[in-house]
Design goal:
- The complex is a heterodimer of chains A (293) and B (215).
- Chain A has helices at residues 25-46, 50-70, 88-112, 117-143, 155-176, 181-210, 214-225, 229-254, 259-282; strands spanning 3-4, 14-15, 285-286.
- Chain A is an all-alpha fold and 293 residues long.
- In chain A, strands 2-3 form a two-stranded antiparallel sheet.
- In chain A, helix 1 packs across helix 9 (259-282) and helix 5 (155-176) runs antiparallel to helix 9.
- Chain A is globular and about 65 Å long.
- Chain B starts with a strand and ends with a strand.
- With 215 residues, chain B is α+β, with helices and mostly antiparallel strands.
- The radius of gyration of chain B is 18 Å and the shape is globular.
- Classes of the chains: A mainly alpha (293), B alpha+beta (215).
- The interface between A and B is large, with 45 and 42 residues.
- Strand 1 of chain A pairs antiparallel with strand 2 (35-42) of chain B, so a sheet runs across the interface.
């Protein structure tokens, strides 16, 4: 066993801190907001909710604010457009800007020029493409980091998108409460399916990661039974999966759900999505610098 | 041309002279280290081995940090040296996260003094004029590129002539650190790496580091 101080990172598995401590918390918020903003826009476009699209725009703007707080030199933010060829952060920044731009135009047209259906459809499709891009790029930005084995997985972008869409659907449910009963039932059905898909992908992701490398296995151990277990089991599993699925199943059999129960499901789903981003970022560990025995 | 280093671990005594030389050369603030010395132990009595590693940016041939940087602040020169243009860095820390060797640091606290409460030393004051470091940007070893450039301009040979060689290399009292051109098959560094079987850390990341260690 190698022992060294004070540079434990060279001989032990060490947690990444840059994207979770201090200002780093805001990148987790930004990833979360980007995911649910994209998911909400796609869901709102499908269910034709103008208010949902507007809230998606607000969430995307909040994502930008969260990004700015994360940066040490926010006044230089314009430089982040410079290298989309290789940097996922640069690509993501462009996706966010285009999404905000197209959504803004689409909302203005929908509100004040509703006759321009072709233009509205065009901008809705364009905004939808970048809503999806905004949602998935956060996963790619994280999974591109080959130094952190738990992140370096092809499943992660899919997980982030599914989590974003599920969160977006949950927010849309809150927005559409009190509206058309048929639409609400249709939305609940979609949420039921997405929740099950989300739970399966979380399971597959963790299972797959355990045998990808020893470092990744260490990360999963931290999540399942280590220091991050409360965050994972309470935040991700209980709030993100168990409570929403329990409510979803109960409403399926009961026929109609109480408003309070639906609000609980929505809040629970949002907490779960946020906890997932934090849990995955916190679980990122580096291999020791020095070779093993 | 690709500059690289080879470190003979059996020669290193852990005096940290390379760390001090680097700090003095670049007027580094208290919390910032462009290179470090790791001292540890391996095994149990009576077969204990002492380990001493001097580490710095690996100046990878295919660096992850350059790829992830969204602004182009982290750049790679034709001679392989990876450096940070402080005027372009936004402080997103993506490069710090992406570096598999954890060799980057963020300069965050400009008020720290080497002798707390006693103000800046003359050396620190001079450093803030001659070699100012911006707050909120990423810091890393640059293989003393300014020494190499100045040396080459005078037709000196980095790794051979002191004036053209990185500060940590020329200040090592045991000559444990070798510097030279990895692309030149006849260079002294390549001979040492070949004869003494130098190895790189974590080849599995595919970054091809320019730092070689000789056990």
């Amino acid at each position: 066993m190698i022992q060294a101080k004070p540079y434990d990172f060279m001989v032990k598995y060490t947690q990444q801190k840059e994207w979770i401590d201090g200002r780093g918390n805001f990148i987790a918020f930004a990833f979360f907001l980007g995911g649910i903003s994209g998911g909400l826009y796609l869901a709102s476009s499908y269910f034709e909710s103008l208010l949902g699209q507007f809230v998606a725009l607000i969430l995307s703007l909040l994502m930008g604010v969260s990004y700015m707080i994360h940066l040490s030199k926010p006044l230089r933010f314009w430089r982040m457009f410079m290298k989309p060829g290789t940097s996922w952060i640069a690509r993501g920044f462009i996706f966010i800007m285009l999404f905000i731009g197209f959504t803004f135009i689409q909302l203005i047209l929908s509100q004040w020029a509703s006759d321009a259906t072709t233009a509205i459809m065009t901008f809705t499709v364009l905004a939808g493409i970048f809503a999806f891009a905004q949602s998935i790029y956060t996963g790619f930005a994280v999974s591109y980091v080959s130094a952190i084995k738990i992140w370096n997985s092809a499943i992660l972008p899919i997980l982030f998108v599914v989590c974003g869409i599920t969160g977006g659907l949950a927010i849309l449910l809150a927005i559409m409460m009190g509206g058309s009963h048929a639409q609400l039932v249709a939305l609940e059905n979609v949420i039921r399916v997405m929740l099950i898909v989300f739970a399966i992908i979380v399971g597959v992701y963790l299972w797959n990661t355990t045998y990808s490398s020893i470092t990744a296995k260490d990360s999963v151990s931290r999540l399942i039974r280590g220091s991050l277990a409360p965050l994972f089991w309470i935040g991700v599993f209980l709030f993100g999966i168990l409570i929403p699925i329990a409510i979803s199943v109960s409403t399926y059999f009961a026929g109609e759900a109480a408003t309070g129960l639906l609000i609980t499901a929505v809040a629970s789903e949002i907490i779960g999505g946020l906890a997932l981003r934090f849990a995955i970022l916190k679980a990122g560990v580096y291999s020791p610098l020095l070779p093993a025995e | 041309m690709r500059w690289g280093m080879a470190i003979e671990l059996k020669r290193c005594v852990g005096c940290c002279e390379c760390v001090l030389a680097c700090k003095a050369e670049h007027f580094l603030p208290p919390d910032i280290f462009w290179n470090r010395v790791l001292i540890g132990e391996k095994g149990k009595y009576p077969t204990v081995t002492k380990l001493i590693y001097t580490v710095r940016c690996n100046q990878c041939a295919d660096p992850a940090c350059v790829k992830v940087c969204p602004t182009g602040a982290t750049q790679q020169r034709e001679d392989g040296i990876v450096w940070v243009d402080e005027d372009k860095c936004v402080g997103c820390r993506y490069c710090m996260v992406a570096c598999p060797y954890q060799m980057r640091s963020m300069y965050e606290d400009g008020n720290k003094e080497y002798f707390p409460g006693q103000g800046l030393t003359e050396h620190e004051k001079m450093g803030r004029i001659l070699y100012p470091h911006q707050l909120g940007v990423v810091q890393k070893c640059i293989f003393c590129k300014e020494r190499i450039d100045a040396g080459l301009a005078q037709e000196l040979k980095p790794g051979v002539d002191r004036e053209a060689t990185p500060a940590c290399v020329i200040n090592c009292p045991t000559k444990a650190i070798h510097f030279g051109d990895l692309d030149d098959p006849y260079s002294e560094i390549n001979r040492i790496i070949k004869e003494k079987k130098g190895h790189q850390f974590h080849l599995e990341y595919g970054t091809d580091p320019s730092m070689y260690y000789i056990d």
